[in-house]
Amino acid sequence: MGANTAVAPPHKGTGLPGDRADEPKRARERRDDRKAAWLFLAPALAGFALFYAYPTLRGVYYSLTDYNMLAPPNFVGGENYADLIGDEQFWNALKVTASYVVLNIGSQTALALLLAALMHRLTRSVALRAMLLVPWLVPNVTVGLLWMWLLDANLGLVNHILDALGLGTSGFFTSPDLAMPTIAAVNAWAYTGYTALLLYAGMLQIPQHLYESASLDGAGEWRMFHRITLPLLRPVLALVLVVSLIGSFQIFDTIAVTTKGGPVGATRVIYYYIYEQAFAQFHMGYASAVAVILALLLGVLTAVQMRLLRASRSDLA
């Protein structure tokens, strides 16, 4: 090599996104970020595996056994699922649950939309929002006991008022015709405020200039609600409907403290039926099979609902 030959210094890179010399460094940084992400996710994943995945797999296993909690599980294959087909009580519980879902979601969503629209267009009071949230903060068992006392046929305040008005008394929780609508009304009272706040938060994301333009064009409140609010609220409304659907199928607390599935099975929903099979009759394997069917049914209904409502898309483009 000649004396005047110069050796070029190694290329250190410019740090710009297109610089090839910095690609290994960026790759290492991405790997480090992934390690940190997995580290933060580890507690949640451990909790999910311990409290959700493992019980789910164990429940599926029990659904294939004849298990009464007093003896080791006896594997019976799909016998429990075959018994479900001819179980009239199971189908009746499913029908009762469906009627409750329709009553609860219909009334709760309609009232919540009305309250949210009124708050959005008329007032944005923080005190009013706090008042709407109070019933949701009360435990379900307390809500059930409270309304059971208020609606008692003999001592309830509501029946005393009805009797004083000359309308007579009613057995709200003891009448086969009134028991389920009463349960739906009680839970609508407890959850409508929370649902209204979710919808109200979604309405706040809608650009105000859309309402101003529609108002200048002579559109009334109902037309603006129908043409602007509802279409642009669809992703939030889809979330609310999916959560309400799952919660409605899981109704248990209010029924357990008020009607206990009566009268004559009028409020024996699927969750209460699972409870009776598992802890009253000790048919744990059969109860697990009903629970698996319920989980699959909820998965299918949720997927259909999300697809029909186009929950992943928004018109706010």
Overall description:
The structure is a single chain. By secondary structure, this protein is mainly α. The chain is 69% helix and 1% strand. It has helices spanning 23-62, 79-85, 88-121, 126-137, 140-150, 157-164, 179-204, 208-216, 221-232, 234-249, 253-258, 270-280, 284-309, and strands at residues 65-66, 74-75. A two-stranded antiparallel sheet has the order 1-2. A hairpin with a 7-residue loop joins β1 (65-66) and β2 (74-75). The protein is flat and about 75 Å long. The protein starts with 22 loop residues before the first helix and ends in an 8-residue tail after the last helix.
Low-confidence stretches: none
Average pLDDT number: 87
Number of strands: 2
Q: Helices and strands, in N-to-C order? A: HEEHHHHHHHHHHHH
Apparent shape: flat
Question: How many separate helices?
Answer: 13
SS-based structural class?
A: mainly alpha
Proportion in helices: 55-70%
Describe this structure in a few short sentences.
The protein is mainly α.
Task: Please describe the structure with a list of short key phrases separated by commas or semicolons.
single chain, 317 residues, mainly alpha, two-stranded antiparallel ribbon, 1% strand
